[in-house]
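Run: sequence + zinc ion -> complex structure.
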Amino acid sequence: MTETKEKSFSRSLLKGTVLNLGLQLANRNLNKNNVWQILLVGAAGGVGDYFLGNAAMGAILGSGNALVNKTKDFETAAKYAAIGGAADLLLNVAEAKAEEFKPTKSKYTDPKNLLKRTGVILAHGHYDIIRRSTYGENGLAQIELTENFQYKTMISAFELAQKTKTFKDTLTLFNNKTHSLVFMETDLTENGRYGTSECFMMSTTDEYNFTPRNNRGFLRNPSNYHFSIRVKLFPLEMENISEKKQIAKLAVVLGHELFIHSRHLEAVKLWELGKYTEALDKEMENPGFDGNIDHKLYMQGQKTIMNQYIKELKNIAASSKLGISSYDIQTAVYEHDKPYKYLLNQ
Ligand SMILES: [Zn+2]
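>> structure
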């Protein structure tokens, strides 16, 4: 018998007794002479509930009362059993739902306070998966963070990206260490996703972090907050392709998360200009379901910063000493664009 079972035994007894008292009150059948019998029948119903469920409790309450009252009213007993059965079903469904959505909080094991730091941060996230989630801080996984990337492909892709002016200038935005740009390489696969990006507001005075959504509280004291952009990367999604193809793909993914989903960077720039309201508005701009408004704008040539980055990436690739050619980048871009082609006509 488990501990939780033992605990619920007294609950079952109480439940049966209270239910039977309620039934007798409803039937105006509660009098001094039979109150102990009613309590006993209720408790017996509770025992039935504990071992067999609500349906058994209903049957015991019904037939027990019929016996006590010498009415042989077993029709009522059957009715109680049916009601008990329905209650069982509903409770089981409710419990299953409660189990499904149990809010297990995600925990970052972050000994070096990586996520509280500002500037550009490279991290490796080891996921001890309790339950998978892509929702970062509200997620259901335990994440152990260590500094720097561990995957060779990720290290090379970052190195390659850094050789472009667009990417380098972007990192410079975080050099003054006001905001943070976290690149978190993970050891998860993510159903074909190579990266995600999200943005939090971090308080510099207490432990609270927020998503900027609909929260204007920051505006009273903006200097107490800074942006933390988190780009999560899933290099293991590419395990079965050649190393140089992985590097080219990951370099494109870095661009995708920063320059196609560019609102995070634009928000930081606005915040730095003191345009706090505009910054929050920008961050809250709707990127569409799964980022599709952003993807569509990119496909229609309106994410010029991404196009510029790709152009530079191609130019730089050959001289990178990583064995990547501009053709590898071109192929990676082609494959990247393929799933978004349908957005061209939307
Ligand atoms: Zn996207």
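>> summary
The chain has two domains: 3-100, 107-345. The radius of gyration is 30 Å.
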